[in-house]
Amino acid sequence: MSLKSKVIAHIDIDSFFVSAERKSNPYLIDKPIAIASKRKNAISISLSYEIKKFNISTVQPISQLQKKIPNLVIVNPNMNLYLDESESFFNFIKENFSDKIEKFSIDECFLDVTDFYKKFNNKEKMGFYIRDEIKKNLNLPVTVGISFNKYLAKMATNLAKPFGVKVLEKKDIKKEIYPLELQALPGLGRQYSKKIFKNQNLKISDFINYCKENKNINKNLFHIFQNLTSIGDDKILVEKKTTKLVSRQFTLENNDNYDAKHILEIIKILALDISNKMKRNLLSSNLIFLNFLTFEHEKKEKKLKLSSYIDDFEIFYKHLVKIFNALWDYQNIKRITVGFLNPVFRNNQKEIFTKPNLQDNKVESLIEKVNNQMKLNILLTLRQLKENKNKNKL
User: Fold this and answer.
1) Distance CA 384, CA 381 (A)
2) Residues 155, 168: contact at Cβ < 8 Å?
3) Is there a contact between 341 and 323 (Cβ–Cβ < 8 Å)?
4) Which residues contact 223 (CB under 8 A, 6 or more apart)?
5) Considering only CA atoms, which of 288, 344, 294 is closest in space to residue 318?
6) What predicted TM-score, i.e. pTM, was given to this entire model?
7) DSSP class per residue in 216-260
8) If you compute the radius of gyration of the chain from its CA atoms, what whole number of angstroms results?
9) How far is residue 242 CA from its own chain's centroid?
10) Which residue intervals define the domain UmuC in the entry (predicted)?
11) Higher pLDDT, 212 or 4
12) What are the angstrom distances between the C-alpha of 239 and each of 11, 94, 114, 247, 340?
């Protein structure tokens, strides 16, 4: 291992929505919790570990969950709570561990802790410190994975969940990672692995051999292979203050089949988060987008240019639903990204002040029609009256 290798941490809040609700309402601690709406055919969007330990998939009709777990407690999603906790989580990390942070989802991030690590000289000790500080100060349980690239740091987190710490060094890969089932690879997905490899019983070591023997593997497989066998991707994509993009993304669990209702619930949470951020920063935009990345690594994206600049959640979400309906084709989605493009400060929106208002145009047309019928020119709009006054001053 090169001396220049970075120390990358991946931090993920355990059952985030459930943990946020328990922080708000301690009565829910140790109860089997499902986060879901009160609708008749509701589907869970988050489950507590009291349920997950039975290998129950996150995406479940509530009616089926209630049959399996009679004492199930259903909690209605509180999006504002989750967004507030998410913001506090990221801010705390920036202020206390590293400002080289890449937000990967609403409840997880990557950190370059190469400098922070120097205080400890023991990666596991550093991981426990990070975990315990977040729990003590934010009352949120997290799992911390540490390695030399982002992919392996996330794998370490998956292996340590819940509320654990795991370090993966170069020397550990063959011993600890290669014997695992193929489905343990983040970003591969069960459906995709079936399609490519046909055999469900393959190990990660089989995947490594397959990639070595096949020179024409696709970009997704090559990316995973590189992260397992070399330095891999250790670049932290820090969010820039002056950006042409304001977006949020959500990564879905590998083995869950998400239907349209569930995905729209996620899009709604992301949309609320972004619109709140736009308002806080006095930004608005007239160009929005929705992006899907499938487990087959196919990217589907659609942009929509609006007639006016917005920051409003309701309007933003309404248009995102339209885009979703145009894109959705029941594919196995790995990641959802929504956002605004080319945001501007509100006082820079010259179009608002220079472009004729449609309502004004209608009024002017009506006044012109009346004046023509009366063969007089006595009716004026307020704008026309002001223009005449200015002319008289010259």
Assistant:
1) 5
2) yes
3) no
4) 151, 187, 233
5) 288
6) 0.74
7) T--HHHHHHHHHHHSS------PPPSS-SEEEEEEEPPTT----H
8) 26
9) 20
10) 8-189
11) 212
12) 17, 12, 19, 10, 14
Identify which of 230, 211, 89 has the alpha carbon closest to the alpha carbon of residue 151.
230
Query: Residue written as tokens 């890969």?
Result: 173
- Residues near 240 by Cβ (< 8 Å), separated by ≥ 6? none
Give how far the C-alpha of residue 379 lies from the chain's centroid of Cα atoms, to the nearest Å.
Answer: 54
- Residue where the block lists tokens 């079936």: 194
Domains and CATH numbers, the chain: 245-350 (3.30.1490.100), 356-393 (no CATH)
At 192-222, the pLDDT tens digits run 677 777 766 789 999 999 999 988 888 889 9
Residue with tokens 């309402």: 25
Q: Are the beta carbons of 188 and 182 closer than 8 angstroms?
A: yes
pLDDT tens, residue by residue, 256-303: 567 888 889 889 989 998 998 888 888 899 999 999 988 777 889 999
CA distance 196 to 106: 30
Under a CB-based contact definition with an 8 Å cutoff, are residues 127 and 146 in contact? yes
The C-alpha atoms of residue 25 and residue 178 are separated, in whole angstroms, by 42
